[in-house]
Amino acid sequence: MRDYDAIELSLTRKFAPGLYVNASYTYSRTNGNYPGSVSYDNGQIDPNISSQYDLIELLANRRGSLPQDRPHSLKLDGYYTYKLDDKSAVTLGTRIRAISGIPENALAGHYLYGPNESFLLPRGQLGRTDFDHSVDLHISYKRKLTQKTAAELYVDIFNVYNHQGTFDVDTNYAPYYKLSVGGTGGEQQNANPVSGGTYGDLIWVKEIDSKGNESAKPIGRNPNFGNTTSRYAPTSAQIGFRFTF
Fold first, then answer.
1. Count of CB atoms within 10 A of residue 12's CB?
2. Are 115 and 109 in contact (CB under 8 A)?
């Protein structure tokens, strides 16, 4: 199941000649145990034939905040057009975005289905990534050539203050294969979910071998677990020219 509940407040208004603002705030929650036709957690992109419900031992902990769950979303767009004369004008515009981070999980492998199939803890138990925000700017000069034609030169600057927030993190708590020791290849390790567990319970998780048998060995932890794996794009710009008729 997947439930999406939201409430949105919006404002659209022309405050003065040439000044226009469009703003909205959305509070939403996306919860359930089914993220959609593809699996964001293990990267499986086979539409509608994912491994979501194949094995009963992997059903635990899958219900909670889904990858699309971003409770707070703020959008603000505005521009002001200043007429230089009857034929030309300059427009200054901005776009502001602010949005909650994504839920963080702790995943491990399964001896039959491979990496990141086992939710060691309930979805979203580890909180979420940082709140993200950015500001874009738009500047243009437009001049009428005839009654029905005009030429416009513009510059767009994206992510003005170069805030490269976290787009995704490493949710793989236990690598499918242990790190190699002494030049030898690491052995395969897997783990079953800790139903209803918390972060403090992870130190008690035991390794499951390639045949599905639980051992007394503690699961090997991924040293990169929880670290940023990808970020939003840095500052960039584009220059364009438009001819309208």
1. 10
2. yes
* Closest of 134, 120, 127, 130 to residue 206, by C-alpha: 120
Whether the full predicted model's pTM is greater than 0.90, yes or no, is no
Query: In sequence order, what are the residues at sequence separation of 6 or more whose Cβ sits closer than 8 angstroms to the Cβ of residue 153?
Result: 140, 141, 239, 240, 241
Q: What span, in angstroms and rounded, lies between the C-alpha atoms of 51 and 40?
A: 12
CA–CA gap between residue 240 and residue 156 (Å, rounded): 8
Residue 201 three-state SS: helix
Q: Which of 103, 72, 82 is nearest to 16 (CA)?
A: 82
Nearest Cα neighbor of 106 from 86, 85, 91, 126 is 126
- pLDDT per position as a tens digit, 66-100: 999 999 999 999 999 999 998 999 999 999 999 99
The residue range of the domain holding 30 is 2-244
List the structure tokens of 71: 């409770």
Closest CA to 64 of 130, 126, 117: 126
Judge residue 154's burial from the number of C-beta atoms within 10 Å of its C-beta, 0-12 exposed, 13-18 middle, 19 or more buried. Answer: middle
Residues forming beta bridges with residue 8, ordered by sequence position: 26
What's the token pair of residue 227? 């670290």
